[in-house]
Automatic annotation (TrEMBL):
Pfam families: DUF2464. PROSITE patterns: MABP (PS51498), UMA (PS51497). This is Multivesicular body subunit 12A. Residues 201-248 form the UMA domain. One of its GO terms (biological process) is receptor catabolic process. GO terms for cellular component: cytosol; ESCRT I complex; late endosome membrane.
Length: 264
């Protein structure tokens, strides 16, 4: 096996069987001829009117590549990490299971080399330079070329510059300000009238009407409430606590001590 130089070569991403160009998927390349000019139509048995072709794809949308191809017999078990190739056939058409093609598909970022091309020859003695012999299957010989491949350039997603700057800032972002309530037209007009009326009275002198003025020690005739001086209040509510003093002076019964007779 010879690894080719690094270049702008897309890798093989899928391999499949197809009955003809009509059943071959649009993103696949159908191998209709061998390298030595023979028809590459795989016929299952003698006398069959239709066969099937090998095809491959280089569509990188799935993010996977084919890293290896093998041919196994019906008595061999499927190797670990491999899978049988897909079949895009006409109704009631089948592929021979005596020998089957299996591939190893891996993520594009996990390998440096992958399968770059697939070819078929009708003569086993024919050698293809820079290609690896896979095996013979149904009268044909399968070859593949493996090497370094060009990986798709990742496309940067559009991002907002202002958002990135805010995310990189070390300062804590302040919480958003609460929404201001909407003004009520009635309340606004009411307070505006009050303010205008107050402004119109600024500087006007204020005094109480004489009939509302009362002098000390005068009695209000309407409410009949006498106005008392401090001396009147002290004389009226003076309390000597004589009752409490008399109660304290009452003779209490004498207490006899235990074991001592009282004197007569």
């Amino acid at each position: 096996m010879s690894l080719m130089e690094r270049g702008n070569v897309r890798p093989v991403t899928a391999v499949a069987w197809a009955s003809n160009s009509g059943t071959c998927p649009k993103d696949f390349t159908l191998i209709s001829l061998t390298e030595d000019g023979a028809s590459a139509n795989f016929t299952r048995t003698f006398g069959m009117k239709s066969g099937y072709y090998l095809c491959y794809s280089k569509d990188s949308a799935g993010g996977m590549v084919v890293s290896d191809i093998r041919i196994i017999s019906d008595k061999d078990s499927l190797p670990h990490g491999y899978c049988f190739i897909a079949e895009h056939l006409e109704p009631k058409a089948t592929v021979s299971k005596k020998k089957r093609v299996c591939v190893r598909i891996v993520p594009v970022g996990s390998v440096e080399t992958a399968v770059l091309d697939i070819k078929l020859t009708a003569k086993s003695k024919m050698m293809l330079q820079h290609y690896t012999f896979v095996g013979d299957i149904h009268g044909y010989v399968l070859w593949y070329r493996k090497g370094y491949f060009s990986k798709p350039t990742p496309q940067a997603k559009p991002r907002s510059v202002s958002l990135d700057i805010r995310q990189l800032s070390l300062e804590q972002q302040s919480p958003p300000l609460p929404l201001r309530p909407r003004y009520n037209a009635y309340v606004y007009l009411k307070w505006r009238c009050i303010l205008l009326f107050s402004a119109a009275l600024d500087g006007v002198p204020f005094s109480l009407h004489p009939k509302f003025e009362t002098q000390a020690n005068e009695t209000n005739s309407d409410l009949n409430i006498p106005i008392k001086s401090l001396q009147d209040i002290e004389n009226e509510y003076n309390y000597t606590f004589s009752v409490e003093e008399n109660a304290a002076k009452r003779i209490r019964p004498s207490v006899q001590m235990a074991g001592i007779p009282s004197t007569q």
